[in-house]
């Protein structure tokens, strides 16, 4: 059994961790594990974590902070209670659809933050996942889900189009036919069907969902180079618009760059010496490993 020590990034008397929010019950909870995994929990369980403007602003702020914090090496995104996120709060949708209170789209950044985030993002889908929640889960790099999770695009049922570029992402995950089915029909599928079509990567029982997602992210944080992972995330996104030959040639140029970075030497030396690697966090000055220091002085 894997035990993870989680430090709340909230005001506490004992943890000694700096608070990221002043609100004692923010719409997104933040926790940082000892391995450098940031757990983001959408926190409106009384509304099944339905999306609001306040949640979106905090969501973007927390991702921005995590991106620039070298201690954060990966992110796990989940929902409090029985749901992940069923989409926009219906009171917001009602006001927006009537024209009484339009959503300030032109004043907000694109709702695609996990894709531009240079560190791994793992979704732990614990229940209803629709609309904006569906999109955010798809924009994560890896998805864990429970068998009873309910996935739905939901846009066509609300008289809307596939938002936030999901019509670009979904066919690349599940194929054109499955994507067309889900987007046109807005039908709900459970975690088992989502796994079968490639929408999720792992299916686990409810009591194991968060431990499994955190364990996976922790393994990335401990064993993989943050610098290399950031380059690979960029490759995965950019190569969607490249030919195979273009992708191969770009990888060769990128490989030359990676080989000049300290993580290349540390990755090789740690493997030879049969020890855990000591990679620096993104934006952090790499520490010189003892073996490398000895080489430099000899």
TrEMBL record:
TM region(s), chain numbering: none
Biased composition (Polar residues): 11-20
Coiled coil: none
GO-annotated molecular function: hydrolase activity
Superkingdom field: Bacteria
InterPro entries reported for this sequence: ClpP/crotonase-like_dom_sf, Enoyl-CoA_hydra/iso, Enoyl-CoA_hydra_C
Region (Disordered): 1-20
Keywords, alphabetical: Hydrolase
Entry similarity comment: Belongs to the enoyl-CoA hydratase/isomerase family.
Protein name from the UniProt record: 2-ketocyclohexanecarboxyl-CoA hydrolase
Native organism: Streptomyces sviceus (strain ATCC 29083 / DSM 924 / JCM 4929 / NBRC 13980 / NCIMB 11184 / NRRL 5439 / UC 5370)
Lineage per the UniProt record: Bacteria, Bacillati, Actinomycetota, Actinomycetes, Kitasatosporales
